[in-house]
Design a protein that fits this description.
128 residues, mainly alpha, 4 helices
């Protein structure tokens, strides 16, 4: 654990001091992951086809993954932009869902207090 802690601190300091290199490394890692995943998807599709299951969609997904990975390697700025868009979409969606939950949760207090005066979570075997 000591070594892992030291490596984590060194990596985080490096990332803070070199954000451009860090972003490039993450984007290239994303591209490499897409290429490897695509190759594996195609291999599985070929294997399934040999067993008389025509999984051509998996092969198409594999080709698309490889194309995406190559585009990321050739145009890393586009890959970085894609990561920004995905992160932004995630933040927006979770924000909307959390706001919706907060609005709904406001009514929980008033309706549950009127419904029962006991604690909200009781164990099944508890007797009063």
């Amino acid at each position: 654990m000591l070594l892992l802690g030291i490596v984590s601190i060194v990596a985080s300091v490096f990332a803070i001091l070199n954000p451009d290199v860090t972003v490039l490394a993450l984007v290239l890692l994303m591209g490499a992951n897409a290429i490897v995943t695509g190759v594996l998807d195609i291999a599985v599709a070929v294997r399934l086809r040999q067993s008389r299951r025509r999984e051509w969609l998996l092969a198409v997904i594999g080709v698309l993954s490889i194309v995406f990975g190559v585009v990321v390697f050739v145009l890393p700025a586009a890959g970085a932009l894609a990561m920004v868009w995905m992160t932004s979409a995630y933040a927006l969606l979770t924000g909307v869902l959390l706001l919706t939950l907060a609005i709904r949760a406001r009514s929980w207090g008033s309706t549950s207090a009127a419904r029962d005066s006991g604690p909200p979570f009781e164990s099944a075997g508890a007797h009063h």
